[in-house]
Specification:
alpha/beta, 2 domains, single chain, globular, 13 helices, four-stranded antiparallel sheet, Aspartate Aminotransferase, domain 2
Length: 395
Protein backbone atom coordinates (compact mmCIF):
# COMPACT_ATOMS: atom_id res chain seq x y z
CA UNK A 1 0.00 0.00 0.00
CA UNK A 2 1.07 3.59 -0.64
CA UNK A 3 1.57 5.90 2.39
CA UNK A 4 -1.81 7.54 1.67
CA UNK A 5 -3.53 4.14 1.83
CA UNK A 6 -4.02 3.74 -1.91
CA UNK A 7 -3.17 0.45 -3.61
CA UNK A 8 0.05 0.42 -5.61
CA UNK A 9 0.44 -1.48 -8.86
CA UNK A 10 1.18 -5.06 -7.77
CA UNK A 11 4.24 -7.02 -8.84
CA UNK A 12 2.71 -9.91 -10.76
CA UNK A 13 6.04 -11.56 -11.55
CA UNK A 14 6.87 -12.74 -8.06
CA UNK A 15 6.16 -16.46 -7.83
CA UNK A 16 3.93 -18.10 -5.27
CA UNK A 17 5.80 -18.60 -1.98
CA UNK A 18 7.15 -22.06 -1.17
CA UNK A 19 5.47 -23.63 1.89
CA UNK A 20 7.59 -23.75 5.03
CA UNK A 21 7.10 -27.53 5.11
CA UNK A 22 9.59 -27.84 2.25
CA UNK A 23 12.45 -26.41 4.32
CA UNK A 24 13.01 -29.36 6.64
CA UNK A 25 13.04 -31.84 3.76
CA UNK A 26 15.44 -29.69 1.76
CA UNK A 27 17.75 -29.41 4.78
CA UNK A 28 17.62 -33.19 5.22
CA UNK A 29 18.50 -33.77 1.58
CA UNK A 30 21.35 -31.27 1.64
CA UNK A 31 22.84 -32.85 4.76
CA UNK A 32 22.56 -36.34 3.33
CA UNK A 33 23.60 -35.42 -0.21
CA UNK A 34 20.81 -37.74 -1.38
CA UNK A 35 19.74 -35.71 -4.43
CA UNK A 36 19.57 -38.42 -7.12
CA UNK A 37 16.13 -39.92 -7.45
CA UNK A 38 17.37 -43.52 -7.68
CA UNK A 39 19.84 -43.58 -4.75
CA UNK A 40 17.33 -44.59 -2.08
CA UNK A 41 15.92 -48.11 -2.13
CA UNK A 42 12.39 -46.69 -1.78
CA UNK A 43 10.41 -43.58 -0.87
CA UNK A 44 12.71 -41.11 -2.61
CA UNK A 45 11.03 -37.66 -2.79
CA UNK A 46 10.60 -37.96 -6.58
CA UNK A 47 8.95 -41.38 -6.22
CA UNK A 48 6.62 -40.05 -3.52
CA UNK A 49 5.75 -37.07 -5.72
CA UNK A 50 4.84 -39.38 -8.61
CA UNK A 51 2.51 -41.41 -6.41
CA UNK A 52 0.90 -38.31 -4.90
CA UNK A 53 0.45 -36.55 -8.24
CA UNK A 54 -1.07 -39.63 -9.87
CA UNK A 55 -3.49 -39.90 -6.95
CA UNK A 56 -4.35 -36.19 -7.15
CA UNK A 57 -5.25 -36.42 -10.85
CA UNK A 58 -6.73 -39.92 -10.77
CA UNK A 59 -4.16 -41.53 -13.08
CA UNK A 60 -2.46 -44.94 -12.82
CA UNK A 61 1.09 -43.78 -13.52
CA UNK A 62 3.11 -40.58 -13.21
CA UNK A 63 6.69 -39.83 -14.25
CA UNK A 64 8.43 -36.72 -12.95
CA UNK A 65 10.99 -35.21 -15.31
CA UNK A 66 13.09 -32.10 -15.82
CA UNK A 67 10.44 -29.98 -17.57
CA UNK A 68 7.05 -30.10 -19.25
CA UNK A 69 8.91 -29.91 -22.57
CA UNK A 70 10.73 -33.10 -21.58
CA UNK A 71 7.39 -34.71 -20.72
CA UNK A 72 5.94 -33.77 -24.12
CA UNK A 73 9.01 -35.13 -25.91
CA UNK A 74 8.98 -38.39 -23.95
CA UNK A 75 5.25 -38.79 -24.57
CA UNK A 76 5.81 -38.65 -28.32
CA UNK A 77 8.74 -41.06 -28.14
CA UNK A 78 6.75 -43.41 -25.90
CA UNK A 79 3.97 -43.56 -28.52
CA UNK A 80 6.59 -45.21 -30.77
CA UNK A 81 5.69 -43.01 -33.74
CA UNK A 82 7.56 -43.46 -37.02
CA UNK A 83 10.22 -40.92 -37.96
CA UNK A 84 8.57 -38.01 -39.74
CA UNK A 85 5.16 -38.67 -38.17
CA UNK A 86 2.80 -35.72 -38.45
CA UNK A 87 1.59 -34.29 -35.15
CA UNK A 88 -1.29 -31.80 -35.07
CA UNK A 89 -0.74 -28.90 -32.64
CA UNK A 90 -2.65 -25.64 -32.13
CA UNK A 91 -1.05 -22.65 -33.84
CA UNK A 92 -1.48 -20.75 -30.55
CA UNK A 93 0.95 -22.34 -28.13
CA UNK A 94 4.44 -21.82 -26.71
CA UNK A 95 7.48 -22.53 -28.89
CA UNK A 96 8.43 -25.46 -26.64
CA UNK A 97 5.50 -27.46 -28.04
CA UNK A 98 6.56 -27.54 -31.71
CA UNK A 99 10.13 -27.88 -30.44
CA UNK A 100 9.23 -31.09 -28.62
CA UNK A 101 7.71 -32.44 -31.82
CA UNK A 102 10.88 -31.63 -33.77
CA UNK A 103 13.07 -33.20 -31.07
CA UNK A 104 11.00 -36.38 -31.36
CA UNK A 105 11.80 -36.57 -35.11
CA UNK A 106 8.21 -35.72 -35.98
CA UNK A 107 6.65 -32.95 -38.06
CA UNK A 108 4.34 -30.35 -36.48
CA UNK A 109 1.14 -29.56 -38.38
CA UNK A 110 -0.34 -26.27 -37.17
CA UNK A 111 -4.10 -25.95 -36.70
CA UNK A 112 -6.01 -22.67 -36.74
CA UNK A 113 -7.16 -21.16 -33.43
CA UNK A 114 -10.17 -18.86 -33.06
CA UNK A 115 -10.76 -15.58 -31.23
CA UNK A 116 -11.60 -17.59 -28.10
CA UNK A 117 -8.04 -19.07 -28.11
CA UNK A 118 -9.34 -22.58 -28.76
CA UNK A 119 -8.75 -24.97 -31.66
CA UNK A 120 -10.87 -24.28 -34.72
CA UNK A 121 -12.67 -27.61 -35.07
CA UNK A 122 -13.34 -27.25 -38.81
CA UNK A 123 -9.62 -26.84 -39.54
CA UNK A 124 -8.82 -29.62 -37.07
CA UNK A 125 -11.18 -32.03 -38.84
CA UNK A 126 -9.69 -31.10 -42.24
CA UNK A 127 -6.13 -31.83 -41.11
CA UNK A 128 -6.73 -34.87 -38.89
CA UNK A 129 -6.64 -37.45 -41.72
CA UNK A 130 -2.93 -36.70 -42.28
CA UNK A 131 -2.04 -36.93 -38.57
CA UNK A 132 -0.29 -39.74 -36.71
CA UNK A 133 -0.82 -38.04 -33.33
CA UNK A 134 -2.39 -34.93 -31.81
CA UNK A 135 -0.87 -32.69 -29.14
CA UNK A 136 -3.50 -30.35 -27.73
CA UNK A 137 -2.16 -27.34 -25.85
CA UNK A 138 -4.61 -25.96 -23.32
CA UNK A 139 -2.82 -22.68 -23.93
CA UNK A 140 -2.94 -20.28 -21.00
CA UNK A 141 -5.45 -22.72 -19.50
CA UNK A 142 -8.05 -22.39 -22.26
CA UNK A 143 -9.58 -25.80 -23.02
CA UNK A 144 -10.55 -26.61 -26.59
CA UNK A 145 -13.60 -28.80 -27.28
CA UNK A 146 -12.17 -32.02 -25.87
CA UNK A 147 -15.39 -33.95 -26.49
CA UNK A 148 -15.27 -33.21 -30.22
CA UNK A 149 -11.49 -33.72 -30.40
CA UNK A 150 -11.62 -37.10 -28.67
CA UNK A 151 -14.59 -38.27 -30.75
CA UNK A 152 -12.72 -37.50 -33.97
CA UNK A 153 -9.40 -38.89 -32.77
CA UNK A 154 -10.87 -42.07 -31.30
CA UNK A 155 -12.75 -42.74 -34.52
CA UNK A 156 -9.53 -42.24 -36.51
CA UNK A 157 -7.35 -44.20 -34.07
CA UNK A 158 -5.11 -41.18 -33.47
CA UNK A 159 -3.57 -40.83 -29.99
CA UNK A 160 -3.94 -37.53 -28.12
CA UNK A 161 -1.35 -35.94 -25.82
CA UNK A 162 -2.56 -33.10 -23.59
CA UNK A 163 -0.15 -30.24 -23.02
CA UNK A 164 -1.63 -29.17 -19.69
CA UNK A 165 1.27 -26.96 -18.61
CA UNK A 166 -1.18 -24.16 -17.75
CA UNK A 167 -4.10 -26.35 -16.67
CA UNK A 168 -3.35 -28.12 -13.40
CA UNK A 169 -6.68 -28.14 -11.58
CA UNK A 170 -8.83 -27.49 -14.65
CA UNK A 171 -11.81 -29.81 -15.11
CA UNK A 172 -13.60 -30.65 -18.36
CA UNK A 173 -17.01 -32.27 -18.05
CA UNK A 174 -16.12 -33.61 -14.63
CA UNK A 175 -12.76 -35.04 -15.74
CA UNK A 176 -9.38 -33.65 -14.78
CA UNK A 177 -7.54 -32.08 -17.68
CA UNK A 178 -4.56 -34.27 -18.47
CA UNK A 179 -6.53 -37.50 -18.01
CA UNK A 180 -8.64 -37.26 -21.17
CA UNK A 181 -5.97 -38.10 -23.77
CA UNK A 182 -3.49 -40.98 -23.71
CA UNK A 183 -0.94 -38.80 -21.87
CA UNK A 184 -1.15 -35.55 -19.90
CA UNK A 185 1.88 -33.29 -19.34
CA UNK A 186 2.21 -30.61 -16.66
CA UNK A 187 4.73 -27.92 -15.74
CA UNK A 188 6.24 -26.85 -12.42
CA UNK A 189 8.04 -23.82 -13.90
CA UNK A 190 7.92 -20.72 -11.69
CA UNK A 191 4.96 -19.05 -13.39
CA UNK A 192 2.71 -22.11 -13.06
CA UNK A 193 0.25 -23.00 -10.30
CA UNK A 194 2.88 -25.14 -8.55
CA UNK A 195 6.34 -23.57 -8.54
CA UNK A 196 9.61 -25.50 -8.51
CA UNK A 197 11.55 -23.13 -10.76
CA UNK A 198 11.70 -25.89 -13.35
CA UNK A 199 10.25 -29.37 -13.63
CA UNK A 200 7.49 -31.34 -15.26
CA UNK A 201 5.46 -34.51 -14.95
CA UNK A 202 3.53 -36.80 -17.28
CA UNK A 203 0.59 -39.03 -16.40
CA UNK A 204 -0.99 -41.95 -18.23
CA UNK A 205 -3.10 -45.05 -17.64
CA UNK A 206 -1.19 -46.99 -20.29
CA UNK A 207 1.52 -49.25 -18.78
CA UNK A 208 3.45 -49.56 -22.05
CA UNK A 209 3.63 -45.80 -22.53
CA UNK A 210 4.68 -45.40 -18.89
CA UNK A 211 7.34 -48.10 -19.15
CA UNK A 212 8.87 -46.75 -22.35
CA UNK A 213 8.93 -43.22 -20.95
CA UNK A 214 10.54 -44.40 -17.70
CA UNK A 215 13.34 -46.19 -19.53
CA UNK A 216 13.98 -43.28 -21.88
CA UNK A 217 13.86 -40.74 -19.05
CA UNK A 218 17.04 -42.35 -17.71
CA UNK A 219 16.08 -45.38 -15.58
CA UNK A 220 19.22 -47.26 -16.63
CA UNK A 221 20.21 -50.78 -15.61
CA UNK A 222 17.60 -51.87 -13.03
CA UNK A 223 16.54 -48.48 -11.68
CA UNK A 224 13.16 -49.05 -13.34
CA UNK A 225 12.40 -51.53 -10.55
CA UNK A 226 11.78 -48.52 -8.30
CA UNK A 227 8.68 -47.67 -10.36
CA UNK A 228 5.94 -49.88 -8.89
CA UNK A 229 3.54 -51.89 -11.01
CA UNK A 230 5.58 -51.88 -14.22
CA UNK A 231 8.13 -54.65 -13.73
CA UNK A 232 7.16 -56.77 -16.75
CA UNK A 233 6.84 -53.85 -19.17
CA UNK A 234 10.05 -52.14 -18.06
CA UNK A 235 11.99 -55.40 -18.17
CA UNK A 236 10.86 -55.87 -21.76
CA UNK A 237 12.09 -52.42 -22.84
CA UNK A 238 15.37 -52.34 -20.87
CA UNK A 239 18.34 -51.75 -23.21
CA UNK A 240 16.02 -51.57 -26.24
CA UNK A 241 15.43 -47.80 -26.02
CA UNK A 242 17.81 -44.82 -25.92
CA UNK A 243 18.34 -42.95 -22.67
CA UNK A 244 17.68 -39.20 -22.81
CA UNK A 245 18.37 -38.60 -19.08
CA UNK A 246 15.54 -36.18 -18.34
CA UNK A 247 15.08 -37.15 -14.69
CA UNK A 248 13.82 -34.89 -11.92
CA UNK A 249 16.08 -34.58 -8.89
CA UNK A 250 14.97 -34.90 -5.27
CA UNK A 251 15.33 -31.20 -4.36
CA UNK A 252 12.70 -30.28 -6.95
CA UNK A 253 10.31 -32.90 -5.62
CA UNK A 254 10.85 -31.62 -2.08
CA UNK A 255 9.73 -28.16 -3.23
CA UNK A 256 6.72 -29.48 -5.16
CA UNK A 257 5.21 -32.00 -2.75
CA UNK A 258 4.08 -29.53 -0.01
CA UNK A 259 2.32 -27.47 -2.69
CA UNK A 260 0.07 -30.27 -3.95
CA UNK A 261 -2.36 -29.98 -1.01
CA UNK A 262 -2.67 -26.26 -1.87
CA UNK A 263 -3.77 -26.83 -5.46
CA UNK A 264 -7.53 -26.76 -4.77
CA UNK A 265 -7.24 -23.52 -2.78
CA UNK A 266 -5.08 -21.90 -5.45
CA UNK A 267 -7.51 -22.97 -8.17
CA UNK A 268 -10.43 -21.40 -6.31
CA UNK A 269 -8.51 -18.15 -5.72
CA UNK A 270 -7.26 -18.03 -9.30
CA UNK A 271 -10.75 -18.52 -10.74
CA UNK A 272 -12.25 -15.89 -8.44
CA UNK A 273 -9.50 -13.37 -9.26
CA UNK A 274 -9.78 -14.00 -12.99
CA UNK A 275 -13.56 -13.62 -12.98
CA UNK A 276 -13.37 -10.45 -10.89
CA UNK A 277 -11.07 -8.79 -13.42
CA UNK A 278 -12.94 -10.22 -16.43
CA UNK A 279 -16.22 -8.74 -15.23
CA UNK A 280 -14.69 -5.27 -15.16
CA UNK A 281 -12.91 -5.60 -18.51
CA UNK A 282 -16.09 -6.73 -20.22
CA UNK A 283 -17.77 -3.47 -19.20
CA UNK A 284 -15.43 -1.65 -21.59
CA UNK A 285 -16.55 -1.15 -25.19
CA UNK A 286 -12.94 -1.73 -26.29
CA UNK A 287 -12.19 -5.06 -24.57
CA UNK A 288 -13.69 -8.54 -24.40
CA UNK A 289 -12.76 -11.62 -22.38
CA UNK A 290 -13.93 -14.68 -24.35
CA UNK A 291 -16.18 -17.07 -22.46
CA UNK A 292 -15.05 -20.56 -21.56
CA UNK A 293 -16.73 -23.49 -23.28
CA UNK A 294 -19.59 -25.01 -21.30
CA UNK A 295 -17.92 -28.14 -19.83
CA UNK A 296 -14.81 -26.26 -18.66
CA UNK A 297 -14.03 -25.23 -15.08
CA UNK A 298 -10.81 -23.27 -15.41
CA UNK A 299 -7.86 -22.93 -13.05
CA UNK A 300 -6.42 -19.61 -14.32
CA UNK A 301 -3.36 -17.73 -13.08
CA UNK A 302 -3.54 -15.12 -15.84
CA UNK A 303 -6.14 -13.37 -17.96
CA UNK A 304 -6.39 -13.00 -21.73
CA UNK A 305 -8.63 -10.54 -23.51
CA UNK A 306 -9.09 -9.15 -27.01
CA UNK A 307 -8.98 -5.58 -28.27
CA UNK A 308 -12.26 -5.11 -30.14
CA UNK A 309 -13.73 -2.46 -32.37
CA UNK A 310 -11.17 -1.85 -35.08
CA UNK A 311 -7.89 -1.23 -33.27
CA UNK A 312 -4.86 -0.40 -35.39
CA UNK A 313 -1.42 -1.79 -34.62
CA UNK A 314 -0.32 1.67 -33.52
CA UNK A 315 -3.24 1.95 -31.10
CA UNK A 316 -2.54 -1.50 -29.68
CA UNK A 317 1.09 -0.55 -29.04
CA UNK A 318 0.00 2.74 -27.49
CA UNK A 319 -2.37 0.76 -25.25
CA UNK A 320 0.53 -1.36 -23.99
CA UNK A 321 2.45 1.85 -23.22
CA UNK A 322 -0.51 3.46 -21.46
CA UNK A 323 -1.05 0.39 -19.28
CA UNK A 324 2.66 0.24 -18.46
CA UNK A 325 2.55 3.88 -17.37
CA UNK A 326 -0.06 2.78 -14.83
CA UNK A 327 2.21 -0.01 -13.59
CA UNK A 328 0.50 -2.89 -15.40
CA UNK A 329 2.35 -4.90 -18.06
CA UNK A 330 0.06 -5.96 -20.90
CA UNK A 331 1.49 -8.13 -23.67
CA UNK A 332 -0.18 -8.16 -27.08
CA UNK A 333 1.01 -11.55 -28.29
CA UNK A 334 1.50 -10.67 -31.94
CA UNK A 335 3.02 -7.24 -31.37
CA UNK A 336 5.71 -8.24 -28.86
CA UNK A 337 9.04 -8.62 -30.64
CA UNK A 338 10.18 -12.22 -30.93
CA UNK A 339 7.22 -13.52 -28.89
CA UNK A 340 7.61 -17.30 -28.49
CA UNK A 341 3.82 -17.70 -28.72
CA UNK A 342 3.53 -16.17 -32.19
CA UNK A 343 3.83 -18.99 -34.71
CA UNK A 344 5.58 -16.87 -37.35
CA UNK A 345 8.55 -16.58 -34.98
CA UNK A 346 9.15 -20.36 -34.99
CA UNK A 347 11.84 -20.09 -37.65
CA UNK A 348 13.21 -23.53 -36.75
CA UNK A 349 10.17 -24.99 -38.55
CA UNK A 350 11.22 -23.48 -41.87
CA UNK A 351 8.44 -21.90 -43.88
CA UNK A 352 5.36 -21.61 -41.67
CA UNK A 353 1.88 -21.94 -43.19
CA UNK A 354 -0.49 -19.04 -43.65
CA UNK A 355 -2.90 -19.14 -40.73
CA UNK A 356 -4.91 -15.93 -41.07
CA UNK A 357 -7.41 -16.67 -38.31
CA UNK A 358 -4.73 -17.34 -35.69
CA UNK A 359 -2.61 -14.42 -36.89
CA UNK A 360 -5.53 -11.99 -36.61
CA UNK A 361 -6.30 -13.23 -33.10
CA UNK A 362 -2.69 -12.91 -31.92
CA UNK A 363 -2.44 -9.36 -33.23
CA UNK A 364 -5.19 -8.25 -30.83
CA UNK A 365 -5.03 -10.80 -28.01
CA UNK A 366 -3.63 -9.50 -24.72
CA UNK A 367 -2.07 -11.28 -21.77
CA UNK A 368 -1.76 -10.22 -18.11
CA UNK A 369 -0.55 -12.34 -15.22
CA UNK A 370 -2.88 -12.71 -12.23
CA UNK A 371 -1.10 -14.77 -9.57
CA UNK A 372 -3.43 -16.26 -7.01
CA UNK A 373 -1.80 -14.32 -4.15
CA UNK A 374 -3.24 -10.96 -5.35
CA UNK A 375 -5.73 -9.19 -3.09
CA UNK A 376 -9.09 -7.89 -4.23
CA UNK A 377 -7.76 -4.33 -4.18
CA UNK A 378 -4.79 -5.32 -6.33
CA UNK A 379 -7.03 -7.12 -8.83
CA UNK A 380 -9.27 -4.05 -9.04
CA UNK A 381 -6.22 -1.85 -9.62
CA UNK A 382 -5.13 -4.03 -12.54
CA UNK A 383 -8.61 -4.03 -14.06
CA UNK A 384 -9.00 -0.26 -13.74
CA UNK A 385 -5.55 0.37 -15.22
CA UNK A 386 -6.39 -1.76 -18.27
CA UNK A 387 -9.80 -0.18 -18.81
CA UNK A 388 -8.44 3.34 -18.36
CA UNK A 389 -5.53 2.69 -20.74
CA UNK A 390 -7.94 1.46 -23.41
CA UNK A 391 -10.16 4.50 -22.93
CA UNK A 392 -7.16 6.82 -23.16
CA UNK A 393 -6.09 5.38 -26.50
CA UNK A 394 -9.55 4.98 -28.03
CA UNK A 395 -11.08 8.10 -26.55
Amino acid sequence: MAPDGQTLAPNVYDSEPIPEAARAEIDRLLLSGDLFRYTALSDAPVALLEAEFADLLGARYALAVSSCSAALFLSLKALDLPKGAKVLIPAFTFAAVPSSVVHADCEPVLVEVGENYRVDMADFARKLPEADAVMISHMRGHTSDMDAIMDLCDAAGVPVIEDAAHSLGTVWGGRNIGTIGRVGCFSFQSYKLVNAGEGGIMITDDPEIAARAIIMSGAYETNWKKHPGLTNSCAHWQNKLPLYNLRMQNLSAAVIRPQLPLVAERVAKGRAGHDRVAEQLNLSAHLVVPKALGPEERAPDSIQFNLTGGWTDRQALDFQTAAKARGVTVQVFGLSEGNARAFWNWQFLGEVPDLPQTRAMLMRACDVRLPTRLTGAELDYIAAAIVDAAAEVRG
